[in-house]
Design brief:
binds guanosine-5'-triphosphate, 4-stranded antiparallel beta sheet, about 150 residues, binds magnesium ion, single chain, 8 helices, alpha+beta, 4 strands
Length: about 150
């Protein structure tokens, strides 16, 4: 089953939005398979955002990600990479639709509270960067037969 990497950034953690954000993924029907609270180093943040290293905000972004606790998670489900991004909303919260996490809970692009992998390949890379294989928990949830239906 498809997996994606989701992180609540330091602003989301500090603002007490962990439960609110997890709840949106849970209620949708996605399954949590890994979770940990960590304070990444700046070098680690640079690895995570390596695609953006030429952008003017790269240094500030990496300083910010490494400034405080990050709640790192892996979520599993059909279409979770693409739909996870829909739940999150557009990068700039001024452009995120109401009803999305960033649309409802954030105001500026530099403090948009959550990260989600932007495609299946990135998701695999990010899951591997943030988690060891043994930190991923495979299990069957009782809700699955109601979420997906069974014949
Ligand atoms: P992530 O899920 O965090 O990767 O966001 P994204 O995929 O929606 O956007 P992108 O990967 O392009 O940018 C990564 C992060 O850099 C964003 O979430 C923002 O926090 C930050 N960012 C992007 N564009 C800007 C910008 O123009 N200014 C500032 N200050 N930050 C930006
Ligand atoms: Mg991105």
């Amino acid at each position: 089953m498809e997996r994606t990497f989701i992180a609540i950034k330091p602003d989301g953690v500090q603002r007490g939005l962990i439960a609110e954000i997890i709840s949106r993924f849970e209620r949708k029907g996605f399954k949590l398979v890994a979770i940990k609270l960590i304070k990444p180093s700046k070098e680690f943040a640079q690895k995570h955002y390596h695609d953006l290293k030429e952008r003017p905000f790269f240094n500030g972004l990496c300083d910010f990600l490494s400034s405080g606790p990050v709640l790192a998670m892996v979520w599993e489900g059909e279409g979770v990479v693409t739909y996870g991004r829909k739940l999150i909303g557009a990068t700039d919260p001024q452009k995120s639709e109401p009803g999305t996490i960033r649309g409802d809970l954030a105001v500026v692009v530099g403090r948009n509270i959550i990260h989600g992998s932007d495609g299946p390949e990135t998701a695999k890379d990010e899951v591997n960067l943030w988690f060891k294989p043994e930190e991923l928990v495979s299990y069957t949830s009782n809700a699955e037969k109601w979420i997906y239906g069974v014949n």
